[in-house]
UniProtKB/TrEMBL annotation, chain A:
PANTHER family: PROTEIN FDRA, SUCCINYL-COA LIGASE SUBUNIT ALPHA
Coiled coil: none
Cellular compartments per GO CC: cytosol; succinate-CoA ligase complex (ADP-forming)
GO molecular function: succinate-CoA ligase (ADP-forming) activity; succinate-CoA ligase (GDP-forming) activity
Protein name (Swiss-Prot/TrEMBL): FdrA protein
GO process annotations (BP): tricarboxylic acid cycle
Cross-referenced Gene3D superfamilies: NAD(P)-binding Rossmann-like Domain, Succinyl-CoA synthetase domains
SUPFAM superfamilies, per the entry: NAD(P)-binding Rossmann-fold domains, Succinyl-CoA synthetase domains
Domain ATP-citrate synthase/succinyl-CoA ligase C-terminal: 325-450
Organism: Microbispora rosea
TrEMBL record, chain B:
Coiled-coil spans in chain: none
Gene3D superfamilies cross-referenced by the UniProt entry: conserved protein of unknown function from Enterococcus faecalis V583, Enterococcus faecalis V583 domain, v583 domain like
InterPro entries on file: AllG-like, OXTCase_su_AllG_h-dom
Protein name: DUF1116 domain-containing protein
Protein source organism: Microbispora rosea
Length: 455, 461
């Protein structure tokens, strides 16, 4: 076998960057498999399972394991690896002085308004604490952050007059800057406080399609409105938007909060009207919530764009299996509620993202699951915007075409706007061409899928 | 509440996934990227606990504030017997406590020389025998007695000590008198010329300096060090400017105090560019000691080596030592010596780095950049990297070449563990074999285990 296995001590790159490097190597001719990853137990095990003779290493080391068809192809892959790693190193070190090594040092040298933390969860606390201690608001994109650290950060932030967005905060828009997974939204009067990233993306994308923009979208993290965290950040974010002259109406997007938290939020006595988009049994779906916002603003509710697939024999027969393969947690929960039945998987859940990139960036697991569906109906989401996959239809459309050829009905909810770099309509058209029914409303997509499954 | 980030142009610090930073670049949002790496292996859990300690932030501010506000004054020169209460057979040494059995060549050599100097043995063999038997001999760490000593750092009762008082916080610290270069006791040499020189220092140099200081009054070392930094010293491997300034301050008083001895005393001081080192060390010691004992503080208050172990002490952890094996310096060698002749790292002079001088002030000393790689930019890189692991910038000790930025001062154990950046330490290199003396000078890295061990201890402190 033509294997290249090496450990580079002390060389660090983040998991998304390494995924891109691995993918670039896999695309070289003759390369059967390429693992370029930090040498965590998980990744070492993965390489061993692939039959590589892996030496001992620590999580601070870079693991390289490449298998090619011939020595020449292996050599070519090795050269490509050096090019890739050098390009990534250069991107971070273009300034004359050495880049800062901690958020604390960066805050000293750079007059920032906030920090965006996306290091692995067990290390996020230190960086976020640096930001708060430096008087900066912070968005913690990282998940797997212990709840006691979240509480400590939020208490400190309140004392310092700054906001902690997260942990596990997927999206935010602050002063027009999209942070994390963020759709390109027009400026406007709606302020959003969101304990749910993809929920906020759905609501704001629909508002954008209806011509209504946002002032700010402040994520607070999925646990913020739980009894343990007590809405610490939501309360601060609501007060901050209430104080913001550009915000005329506030939308609170969350799973239904713990009762005492709901009370605390209700007792805030804000002067700005608040529309709650609370996801759960007996609550409005996100599309209905967006429509409520439009009515509150005195705007018309448009027909939400959709691209139907040609009807086929055998569709909508009772008893067909429905599988939901989601990247967005809230979207997944909403679809499960609307569909009422079927097997739903949230590939963005912590248990799937430990040691690997989010499914909105790394499609591998979802793609594998889609390929494994032999019949019935598949419901998926595709979330566009900054930070997300630059061209999801490039890998999804062929897989949909294969699935449709197997007799599977595919329904896709595309969450995005016309301003998104991927282009909402172009992506939707390509998925539709491949045979999928495409919706901009996740709830509408779920209803359609339920119908196809005979429900 | 008014949240400032909602108003004005967003400017973002990004740390973590590059793809999220690049998304901001595409939106033309100004940002600064952190070159993040995982912390030292095994440090994650302890880091989370130490960083969550509610006392930490203010404790560190208090501790480093005390270190930086210290005003070291050279107040006198006195025999160790008087000021440190040393009795016959009692010796202090550099670094964490060590026994004769574990002592390296230069440490044994210096102790042997001190035995001869004190008249406790007639020959080196007899001295070694008595030291090995331990009968009537007591060894202890200088740092346990408000004292520091360069290289082996051996202090015996008859040696004369520089006395430095902190006019701000009231502490006092001591360091022996510098013997010069070549074959000297602190590098483990104990030949007749070494003992002869120590006698002269005790009989002439010490008393003359004491009398001169009585005449001219205390010398403000904080100001002197600040000036020397602006004249190209970093105060550890280069002390030429500081020594010259000291001579300028004290020479008239020496002449007045001892007209018939003044010439030989001044000639001796002038012949040794490192004469000031010991005064600078005492100044650094008294400053670092002012920062001791602040509960919850992760500030390093001492780094010291005994030739076998490298040890640190931390403000919030009392007098406990956290040690790892002393490394062999990477450096330049004198004459025919090479790396095989080098002893592992030794000496209390790392107190200069502890206080924000030495390797941390490397950018101030372009004349000695050969130690750090040859280019001035290497010296600048060495200093700027130390801002990553320090809590403050020294208000008085400034570096002209960095726009008069204060030197990086106050090492934080937690920042060392987070960044994996170890303190840059400038050092002399002692010969491995007792009696050799100095063989070179260079740079050395402390063992990371000393810092992670201190971090673990902070969890329970």
């Amino acid at each position: 076998m033509n294997d290249l296995v090496e450990v580079r001590p002390g060389v660090y790159r983040d998991s998304v960057t390494l995924m891109r490097v691995s993918r670039a190597l896999t695309e070289r001719p003759g390369v059967a498999v390429a693992v370029v990853a930090m040498a965590t137990e998980l990744n070492l095990g993965l390489a061993r399972d692939l039959g590589f003779a892996v030496p001992s290493a620590t999580p601070g080391d870079l693991l390289v394991a490449v298998r090619a068809g011939s020595p020449a192809e292996l050599e070519d892959a090795a050269a490509e690896l050096e090019r890739q790693l050098a390009a990534r190193a250069q991107a971070s070190g273009t300034r004359g002085e050495a880049p800062p090594r901690t958020t604390r040092a960066a805050a000293r040298a750079f007059d920032a308004s906030l920090a965006l933390v996306s290091v692995p969860g067990e290390h996020a606390f230190a960086e976020a604490l640096d930001a708060v201690e430096a008087g900066l608001s912070v968005m913690i994109f990282s998940d797997n952050v212990p709840v006691e650290q979240e509480i400590l950060l939020k208490d400190l932030a309140r004392a310092r007059g700054v906001l902690v967005m997260g942990p596990d905060c997927g999206t935010a828009v602050v002063g027009g800057a999209g942070l994390g997974f963020a759709n390109v939204l027009r400026p406007g009067p709606v302020g959003v406080v969101a304990a749910s990233g993809t929920g906020a993306q759905q609501v704001t994308s629909l508002l954008d399609l209806a011509g209504v923009g946002v002032s700010h979208v402040l994520g607070v993290g999925g646990r913020d409105l739980s009894a343990a965290v007590g809405g610490r950040s939501a309360v601060q974010a609501l007060r901050a938007l209430d104080d913001d002259p550009a915000t005329e109406l506030i939308v609170l997007v969350s799973k239904p909060p713990a009762p005492e938290v709901a009370r605390a939020v209700r007792d805030l006595d804000l002067t700005t009207p608040v529309v709650a988009a609370l996801l759960g049994p007996g609550q409005d779906d996100l599309t209905t919530a967006a429509e409520k916002v439009l009515r509150a603003l005195g705007r018309d509710v448009p027909e939400w764009p959709s691209w139907p697939a040609p009807a086929r024999d055998g569709a909508a027969e009772p008893g067909r299996a429905l599988r939901g393969l989601y990247a967005g947690g809230t979207l997944c929960a909403e679809a499960a509620l609307v569909a009422g039945a079927g097997g739903f998987t949230d590939f963005g859940d912590d248990s799937y993202t430990r040691g690997r990139a989010h499914p909105m960036i790394d499609p591998a697991l979802r793609l594998e699951a889609l390929r494994g569906v032999a019949s019935g109906v598949v419901l998926m989401d595709v979330v566009l915007g900054h930070g997300a996959d630059p061209d999801p239809s490039s890998w999804l459309a062929p897989a949909i075409r294969d699935a449709v050829a197997r007799g599977v009905d595919v329904v896709v909810a595309v969450v995005g706007t016309d301003g998104d770099p991927q282009g909402l309509r172009a992506q939707a058209a390509r998925l539709n061409d491949a045979g999928a029914a495409v919706f901009t409303s996740n709830a509408a997509a779920a209803r359609h899928a339920r119908h196809l499954a005979g429900g | 509440m008014t949240l400032s980030m909602l108003y004005g142009e967003p400017r973002v610090i990004t740390v973590g996934a590059q793809v999220l930073g690049e998304a901001l670049d595409r939106q033309a949002v100004p940002r600064r990227e952190v070159d993040w790496r995982p912390p030292l292996p095994g440090a994650s859990a302890a880091l989370a606990r130490v960083l969550a300690d509610p006392r930490r932030e203010s404790a560190n501010a208090t501790a480093v504030g005390r270190m930086l506000s210290a005003r070291p004054m050279l107040t006198g020169v006195r025999p160790a017997r008087e000021v440190l209460g040393l009795g016959a057979g009692e010796f202090f040494h550099a670094g964490p406590p060590i026994t004769w059995e574990r002592a390296s060549g230069p440490m044994r050599g210096a102790l042997t020389g001190a035995m001869l100097f004190e008249g406790l043995a007639a020959t080196p063999e007899e001295a070694e025998e008595r030291l090995a038997s331990g009968a009537g001999i007591t060894l202890d760490s200088c740092h346990h007695h408000r004292t520091v000593g360069p290289m082996a750092g051996v202090v015996s009762p008859s040696m004369w000590m520089l006395e430095v008082a902190d006019a701000e916080h009231g502490g006092t610290a001591y360091c022996s008198l510098n013997e010069g270069l070549g074959k000297v006791l602190r590098y483990g040499a104990y030949g007749p010329e070494v003992i002869e020189r120590l006698r002269w220092m005790g009989e002439v140099l010490g008393p003359v300096l004491a009398a001169a200081l009585e005449r001219c009054g205390p010398l403000d070392l904080r100001t002197l060090i600040a000036q020397a930094l602006q004249m190209g010293d970093e105060l550890h491997n280069r002390n030429r400017a500081a020594t010259s300034l000291l001579v300028r301050e004290i020479a008239p008083a020496i002449v007045e105090a001892a007209p018939d001895r003044a010439a030989e005393v001044l000639r001796f001081i002038n012949g040794n560019d490192h004469f000031f080192l010991n005064a600078g060390m005492a100044a650094a010691k008294v400053s670092a000691d002012a920062a001791r004992g602040v509960p919850g503080s992760s500030l390093v208050v001492a780094m010291a080596r005994n030739g076998t172990d490298f040890g640190i002490q931390v403000s919030g952890l009392g007098d406990r030592w956290f040690t790892g094996p002393a490394g062999v310096p990477d450096g330049l060698y004198l004459g025919g010596y090479g790396p095989d002749d080098a002893n592992p790292d030794i000496g209390d002079s790392t107190i200069t780095e502890t206080a924000g001088l030495g390797g941390f002030a490397m950018a101030a000393a372009p004349a000695i950049v050969r130690f750090v790689g040859g280019e001035v930019s290497d010296a600048v890189a060495a200093t700027t990297s130390m801002y990553e692991i320090t809590l403050a910038e020294h208000p008085a000790y400034q570096i002209p070449g960095l726009g008069f930025r204060g030197t990086p001062a106050g090492i934080d154990v937690a920042l060392v563990a987070r960044t994996g950046l170890l303190p840059v330490v400038n050092t002399g290199i002692a010969g491995r074999i007792a009696g050799t003396g100095q063989v070179g000078a260079g740079l050395v890295s402390p063992p990371s285990g000393a810092f992670t061990a201190a971090l673990d201890a902070l969890c329970d402190a």
